[in-house]
Amino acid sequence: MVEQGRQPAFSLIDPKAYGFSYVLSGSAQLILHDGREIALHPGSFFQLHPEITQALYVDNNSDWRECSLSIYRDSYQRLLAIHSVRLLSDVFQIGIQPEIISAYKDCHDLFGREEAVNTNQAVHAVLHCLRLIYQAIDHLRNKDDFLTQAKYILTNEMSSRKSLQAIASEMDMNYHAFRRRFKDLCDVSPGDWQIQQRIRRAQTLITEMSIEDVAEELGYADRFIFSRQFKKVTGLSPKDYRKLMVTTQEQH
């Protein structure tokens, strides 16, 4: 069954069948079976598995609308057997995607017919909807995997003076593709992001080490290059920043 409409302010979900929901508008809090509370917004996707109780709190005055679909337990077991349903327990923020809404609408139109629905046709419609959703989730995870790996390498290579071209090569990408993808996801280039991390690290070391040692620790060719970059980012020279930190610590 596919539904497109509102939820009451509070509902306890104890499904006897498998279902999944895609939020179109409004906001709510979903309480998972393990007690975690996750915010729902337009573009949120979550699944309901048989006998797993969850609670949904819709925000007051929220124009809550969702597309939801449920299938019988036996159909759910068959889909699990052929790996067409994934046992995902979390909420995924996949965003509003017209093709997913269209697939939900196709299911709604199909199941809303007065005449009997062909089983193969119904299964095909549901699987098409799920495939689109899982593709969106995989795309989201691939973004996360890329950023995790890129930030890990950029952080660990701060002291080695390894070039960004070499780091891109480690990720099997040319530099321009690496830079473009990183900036698309972080709104900052990998070079600028690495500089930010270097200066943040420098701020924690500056009261414990000499300026020369901090510069060497963070991969700078000399203290003068480090000092110029530090001042450009913080507005203070390393020496003045150290004095400020020492004075602040003494006052406390």
Shape verdict: elongated
Elements, N to C (H/E): EEEEEEEEHEHHHHHHHH
Give the helix proportion (percent range). 40-55%
Sheet-strand content, in percent, reads 15-25%
Could you tell me how far the N terminus lies from the C terminus, measured between alpha carbons in angstroms? 63 Å
Task: Just give the CATH class of the largest domain.
Answer: Mainly Beta
Tally of separate domains: 2
CATH superfamily caption of the largest domain: Regulatory protein AraC
Label the structural class.
alpha+beta
Strand order of the largest sheet: 1-8-3-6-9
Low-confidence stretches: 1-6
**Strand tally:** 9
- The mean pLDDT is 82
Radius of gyration: 26 Å
The CATH topology of the largest domain, please? Jelly Rolls
Which CATH architecture of the largest domain would you pick?
Sandwich
Counting DSSP H or I runs of 4 or more residues, the number of helices is: 9
Q: What summary fits the major beta sheet?
A: 5 strands, antiparallel
Overall description:
The protein is α+β, with helices and mostly antiparallel strands and 252 residues long. It has 2 domains: 2-141, Jelly Rolls, CATH 2.60.120.280; 157-252, Homeodomain-like (Arc Repressor Mutant, subunit A, Orthogonal Bundle), CATH 1.10.10. The chain is 51% helix and 17% strand. It is built from 9 helices and 9 strands. The protein has helices at 73-81, 98-111, 119-156, 164-170, 175-186, 190-205, 211-217, 223-234, 238-251, and strands at residues 2-5, 10-13, 18-25, 28-31, 37-40, 44-48, 54-58, 65-71, 92-93. The strands form 2 sheets. Strands 1-8-3-6-9 form a 5-stranded antiparallel sheet. A hairpin with a 5-residue loop joins strand 4 (28-31) and strand 5 (37-40). The radius of gyration is 26 Å and the shape is elongated. Residues 1-6 have low confidence and may be disordered.
